[in-house]
Amino acid sequence: MTTTPRQRLETLGIALPQAASPVANYVAAVRTGQLLVVSGQLPLVEGRLSAIGKLGATVSVEAGADAARRCMVNVLAQLDAALGGDLSRVKRVVRLGGFIACTPDFTQHATVMNGASDLAVAVFGEQGRHARSTIGVPSLPLDAPVEVEGLFEIEGE
């Protein structure tokens, strides 16, 4: 029996939050053809950041990976909203982009971003395996430690 992304989320104990509204002059998601791009999401939980600061300074690698996972939950919430609540329309997670606010000597970006990547695979199975970029940056909005964006291939209209 095949499980759906929604069932996998339930098994993981994840309830998707309401998709956050954009805070500037952009939209949360854009669809062109069969591709849907979700704008960068922060690790917000009930409107508050789950962690604040930089990797390599005040945020541990473990807390950074958890923040990346929370970002991915918010990416999924945006995706769910854009698809009218039907995550089964996702044919493939094409790419995830991760931005890690960190000190200049920090080198464990990939480990941090695995928090998001592992969740994509847990929710979408083999279709969740994706290309990825992970980039260290000096700062992110609200002093968030991580931001994650996504590109998805979608079925149907």
UniProtKB/TrEMBL annotation:
This is RidA family protein. It holds the Pfam family YjgF_endoribonc. Residues 8-144 form the Endoribonuclease L-PSP/chorismate mutase-like domain. The lineage of its organism: Bacteria, Pseudomonadati, Pseudomonadota, Alphaproteobacteria, Acetobacterales.
